Amino acid sequence: VLSVIPVIVLFAIFQKYLVSGITAGAVKG
C-alpha cells in the first residue's frame, strides 16, 4: 500500500502540470 502513495502523488502533480500546460498553451494560442 505504501508503494502506491508516491505513484498517486506523482500522478496528481503530473495532472496539475499537464492541465496548466494545456491552459497556458490555449491562452498563448
Automatic annotation (TrEMBL):
Record has Transmembrane helix as a keyword: yes
Cellular component terms (Gene Ontology): membrane
SUPFAM superfamilies membership: MetI-like
Secretion signal, residue range per the UniProt entry: none
Alphabetical keyword list: Membrane, Transmembrane, Transmembrane helix
Intracellular or extracellular location(s): Membrane
Membrane topology label: Multi-pass membrane protein
Name under which the protein is recorded: ABC transmembrane type-1 domain-containing protein
